[in-house]
Amino acid sequence: MIHPHPDAAIVIGILALQGAFIEHQDALQKISLQKKIEVIQVRTAEELAKCAALVIPGGESTTIALLARLSGLLEPLRQFVKTKPVWGTCAGAILLSKNVEGAKKGGQELLGGISITIARNGWGSQVESFEADLDVPLLRDPERPFTGIFIRAPVVLSLDTTPEDPPIKVISRLSPHYLPESLTSSNLTHEPKTFVALQQGLHFLTTFHPELTQDNRFHEYFVRECVLPSLPPPLQ
Ligand SMILES: NC(=O)CC[C@H](N)C(=O)O
């Protein structure tokens, strides 16, 4: 393997087919870790090939998948997910899931990557969108809650890991009282439905929109815990 120069910037792509990709680009560019980060917008397989990691933004997962297919990106994205870190936010979280409920008629193209079943629009339509303070014990300044912005957000229905899969780590969960009646059940404390930020191996998933706040601690977490560990030495 040819090791990139230790001072080479880490190229992180933002899938820029549809949705809130500019906000992710702004948030990542504000991160000051020990490595330089170059953020590029990805619309082609050639641009994807330049990336060490990828963020799939919020938007409409069916539209993003359709545009990915039309632009010849769907298969390159599926291959990328097999070896490099990907963070999916909201619609991106749906695309990163192995299974989806509430998909559009005729089914929904997914990339896989995180072994969960997720429900599109789990809280309902736009009018059920909400904000919630999240506990973030693994982020910088853990005593400071993170404002989660949930816009027609998906809900994690189940963790479907097999013995061969990396374990799923819950990074942040929602207080059960935010769950809609339709999703509540007796044993809420360990319900996957309260899990709103998950990590599995190098992949990361948030069902809300960190990029719509001025708080880039989730962006820092993704780079520190998913991107840097995926790089060949001495870049780590
Ligand atoms: N804010 C969002 O990304 C919404 C996701 C959208 N409801 C979907 O199903 O893809």
TrEMBL record:
Q: Which EC number(s) does UniProt give?
A: 3.5.1.2
Q: Name one GO molecular function term.
A: glutaminase activity
Pfam families in UniProt: SNO
Gene3D superfamilies xrefs: 3.40.50.880
Alphabetically list the UniProt keywords. Glutamine amidotransferase, Hydrolase, Lyase
Binding residues for L-glutamine: 59-61, 120, 151-152
Where are the catalytic residues?
Answer: 90, 209, 211
Catalysed reaction(s) here are: L-glutamine + H2O = L-glutamate + NH4(+)
User: What's in the GO CC field?
Assistant: cytosol; glutaminase complex
Record-linked SUPFAM superfamilies: Class I glutamine amidotransferase-like (SSF52317)
Question: Record's CDD domains?
Answer: GATase1_PB
Q: Biological process (GO) annotations?
A: pyridoxal phosphate biosynthetic process; pyridoxine metabolic process
Query: Which HAMAP family does the record associate with it?
Result: PdxT
Q: Which family does it belong to?
A: Belongs to the glutaminase PdxT/SNO family.
Q: Which NCBIfam families match?
A: PLP_synth_Pdx2 (TIGR03800)
Q: What is this protein called?
A: glutaminase
